[in-house]
Design a protein that fits this description.
The protein is α/β, with parallel strands linked by helices and about 100 residues long. Helix content is about 45%, strand content about 25%.
């Protein structure tokens, strides 16, 4: 994945612990598929540094690309939509720190 700053980074005692990326796709196409593949690779790199990765993604575009999101969920430890993130993120983050 290109070098970019993460959407969110959660720190504990000035040390990064959790990297969070968020996006929304209203349509289908190569961009969501490319992003999913890139985040699978990104998680590996993040984990090598001792960090956890959370990908929050949503949008009707995923309804037509179910296979991509299903495959990504097998590779990415914490993959959730906005509803799940809203309901569960406060419970998940303490477990990761």
């Amino acid at each position: 994945m290109r070098s970019k700053k993460a959407d969110f980074v959660i720190y504990k005692r000035d040390t990064p612990k959790v990297v969070i990326e968020c996006n929304f796709y209203s349509g289908t196409g190569s961009k969501p598929i490319e992003t999913a593949n890139a985040y699978i690779d990104f998680q590996r790199k993040v984990c090598e540094k001792g960090l956890q990765f959370i990908w929050i993604t949503d949008g009707r575009g995923w309804k037509e690309m179910k296979n991509t999101i299903i495959q990504s969920s097998k590779e990415i430890d914490f993959l959730m939509n906005y509803t799940i993130a809203n309901e569960k993120l406060a419970k998940i983050i303490p477990l990761l720190l």
